[in-house]
Specification:
- This protein has 218 residues and is mainly alpha-helical.
- The chain has one domain.
- Helix content is 82%, strand content 0%.
- The protein has nine helices and no strands.
- It is globular, with a radius of gyration of 17 Å.
């Protein structure tokens, strides 16, 4: 599995399709946090929102890298559709972890702040919650499910609006609302960790649904 993740990571690097979502993330973080002098809870909420958009785009781009004949060769080589899909999800997770590190540090460069351990932990949890949710959307809207990417894009936009605006339903909406209304990172750690677990569950369900559809089409 590690070799497969390394292969997909390398293919994505060589394709340069990571550049657009990466630049989107950096641009959003710079715009949303460069003049922000409020509590770090609200700052990292903004960074997490940028991670949501970036993770959707990155996951869809990663899974759509290979055409069907090339993907079939990879599946035969590994012996399992599921292994290839899990490797794609794992590769997207690695990218999200790298971006999380950037999202932690970049806002601190725009303003003189001294974050505590609770602030940094909250920043990680918040970004991963949005990252896992975005990956869940990206997997189910990928080329494995939709041959026509126009339909996939429309569904991805609809799901993004749903998770951002679905009050009391979406873990992303609940988390962002809570972080915008609190200034104490310590108080927000446990609720955000619970929402991260929910987001991980959504990613698991999304991966299972995509795998079932993939096998049915095979």
């Amino acid at each position: 599995m590690i070799a497969l993740v390394r292969y997909m990571f390398t293919v994505l690097l060589l394709s340069q399709r990571y550049l657009a979502p990466l630049l989107l993330f950096l641009g959003l973080v710079a715009v949303l946090t460069s003049s922000d002098s409020g509590p770090l809870t609200a700052t990292y909420a903004s960074v997490a929102g940028a991670m949501l958009l970036c993770s959707v785009w990155l996951t869809m781009a990663l899974i759509g890298l290979e055409d069907q004949p090339h993907r079939s060769i990879v599946v035969v080589s590994t012996g399992s559709h599921l292994r290839v899909l899990l490797a794609a999800v794992g590769t997207a997770a690695v990218w999200c972890l790298l971006l999380t590190a950037v999202g932690l540090v970049l806002p601190l460069m725009f303003a003189a702040r001294t974050p505590g351990p609770a602030d940094l932990a909250l920043g990680i949890l918040a970004q991963l919650t949005c990252g896992f949710t975005g990956m869940a959307i990206g997997v189910v809207c990928s080329r494995l499910v939709f041959r026509r990417q126009g339909y996939a894009l429309l569904l991805a936009l609809g799901l993004l609006l749903a998770v951002l605006l679905g009050k009391g339903v979406s873990p992303v909406n609940i988390m962002l609302t809570h972080l915008q209304n609190t200034s104490d990172s310590t108080d927000a750690l446990v609720p955000t960790a619970v929402l991260l677990a929910v987001a991980a569950g959504l990613l698991t369900v999304s991966t299972a649904v995509t795998q079932a559809i993939t096998l049915r089409k095979a």
